[in-house]
Amino acid sequence: MSRLKNFSRNVTTSYLQLGVNVVYSLVSVPLILHWLSKSEFGLWAVLVQLMSYIGLVDLGINQAIARFLVDHKDRRGEGEYGALVKTSALVSSIQGLIVLAVVTLGSPLLAAMMKIPAEYQKTFVDLMRIQGLIAAFTFCTNPLGIMLYAHQRMDIVNRVSIFGMVASLGLLVLFLVEACGIYSFIYANAITAAISPVYLFWQCRRLGFLPHAGEWGNVSWRQFKEVFLYGKDVFMMNVGIQLITASQVIIVSYVLGLEAAAAWTVGTRVFLLMRQLVFQPINAASAGLCEMLTRNETEWLRHRFKNLVVLTASLGAYLGVAFALCNSLFVNVWTDGKITWLPLNDVLLGLWIFIASIQTTHTSFLFITKQIGGMRYVYFVEGCTFVTLSLLAGFRWGLPGIIACSMLCLMFFSCQSGLRRSGRYFQMPFSELAVDWIRPSLKFAAALTPMAFVTWFATAGLPVLWRLAIHVVVAGAVGGFLLLRIGLPSDIIREAGSRLPRPAARLLAMLVPCKV
Prior knowledge:
By secondary structure, the protein is mostly helical. The protein has helices at residues 3-35, 38-52, 61-72, 80-113, 118-140, 142-150, 154-177, 183-206, 221-245, 248-256, 258-267, 269-294, 298-334, 343-369, 375-426, 430-436, 439-458, 464-487, 490-499, 502-511. It is 84% helix and 0% strand. Helix 1 packs antiparallel against helix 12 (269-294) and helix 17 packs antiparallel against helix 18 (464-487).
């Protein structure tokens, strides 16, 4: 099957997954705020972000194995492919045991460090330990996901995620109605975590991704050392990324309290979805780009990567402006005024989305080339700098100070470093990558931003619900039209037109006849 078809399928299901995530958030948050107090909701938000650090136990090894599997999937008879799968199974099992031990023993210490109120400490420890058991089990299923990644079938993982969210929402409602309180999250997670791997295993077996007899190979120290050396670089980057993207709730809770953590969790829910939307194109394309690199398709790799850079940057500009225009109004309507969220927060987060859209393609390319080098230290320094500055800024300027620290660290560390590394790989000057490649995106952002300001001030006297409706229409219709006319180059539009179903291609030709 062609790489483009796999990419299209992966992107489509990833966006469908995000759509389901939107529905999940829209329905679950009002329910949670109805059945639980804001402090309990904040407690769960802190726990979820703390548990996200458990992924660092992987040490980057399974990500490294997934990358190496791409190199060997076309030569499975040599045994390297099967040996890597066995290595992943062994490492994942050991990691699962480590996760279980760390969470079980460390939960009381975490409760004290996070200044969890005394009345919630026992609940926090119990929830952490049960969630640790679920995480340990999930670690043991890692080999299934890495085989699907290597064969560019992340659409299957996305479908499992969609099923998990739908099932989890139904179970969450059931347990909340049954008065299970904050434990409803845990019960719903446990049930979905037990079902999902069964489907992944069946798909791997049906598609022939599991090694056949004679293809398993032997686990060797040479192979593990190669994987580990690459994995340690990935791990260092992951530590920095984790500090950058998964510390905010913890910092807000520590500096401003559990209710502020609940407000952050609700106020940034759409932002997290926007961030995932920006990351999806490169995530869906990465396995195909790895294959191009393995097969020495250098010119085709450069062409595809440039298109991804432009597509992602324009998408980031669109989503960043739309988010800044709509989110504070949406939070007000969504929570019926229970959560207060400043528009200034949204402007800063919108800028963050745009900068991240430029950064993500270039830093992700390092994983594809396996040339991480000094970038692992850049991420780590960025993460440490962000945590230090945001703790200081949070006490003085609150949430806007924390967001501004995140945005500035992203800009001055990983974004510019990623651009320079891509420039060295393609032997291109920094200015060409930073300006010339994304010129359509910059023109699009310059056209869209004034429109957003005019819309905001023109509707200032209207009721909140009417303002939100108008802003959504302007961002969706006008912003979408400008994205097609200005934000995307002609070759991307033409290729999309040739691949879309005939009715959709006809509509695209009507909207941008000069490009199709």
